[in-house]
Amino acid sequence: MAAWSDRTGVVVLPGGAQVRGRPAAAPASPADFTVLLVDGPAPAWPYRRVRWPDFWIPADRDDAVDALREALRRAYAGERVEVACRGGKGRTGTGLAALAVLDGLPVRQAVPWVRRHYHSRAVETPWQRWWLRALPSLRD
User: What does the domain layout of the chain look like in residue ranges?
Assistant: First the structure.
């Protein structure tokens, strides 16, 4: 399992996998895979870009869930996985909360969980909370 040289933004999902959240422009130690939720420069390592407008929800729900499932699989395979958006709070926090739900956390606990473990202002809008409520039906 690869270790993070900088643990800033790293959270432990309910099942034990580690994932890092961060602002996309912040200096960061390398990852093995990034779910990038913003336009702009791509990281130097493998990534998957999801169209997700600021303060909103993903433009394509199936693509977003597929990218998050890929991130979850990679995290459990021991890769250093991260989620990043412009500010590192709203979309990133929603992505991390979604990973926790896909990992088995009850959806009603997702927002408090991500605010406690990642950032106190994670999941910024009512639409992002609404989007999270649809995730349990997508768990495999």
Answer: 10-134
